[in-house]
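Sample pair:
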Amino acid sequence: MRNLNIGLTDEQLQGVTDLLNHDLADAYLLLIKTKKYHWDVVGPQFRSLHQLWEEHYNALTANIDALAERIRSLGGYPIGTAEGFLKYASIKEHIGDLPLATEMVARLVDDHEQIIRNLRQHVDQCSGEFHDQGTADFLTGFMEQHEQMAWMLRSFIEGQGISPDGEQPKSETATAALV
């Protein structure tokens, strides 16, 4: 890592770069999983999920590039191999498994939520331990994107009605009463 004069020590820059590489690995693995589900989904939800996942993988692709460029702007080098991504990622693959559409959605929700938890921790570390408010702000934007993607996916599988006042019904009977 080249010695930069941007108000952060080499140790702080290395710490932030390590966090960003973990986020990059998670984003890349999530991109692969989203793309695979986009290709393989079948059933009545095919069109809506196929389109939603295309939107998501396009956003993830842009985020991956931004993460790698942020790492470079801080003097580091982004990981760029499958082995590196698998080593650094906190989410896992499901090799050889082709679940039903609803399970695909549930798995992606779990992955987004894991990434959100990681990003919350990384934002705190960047602003506190590493004194890098720029990267903390940068990661906050990604966290908000993952929160929105997770919400969209969760909404797809929740399947519970909402009353006119915005409250969720207490039971199946209450749901039937809304119809």
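Helices lie at 10-40, 46-73, 82-88, 101-127, 133-158, 172-178.
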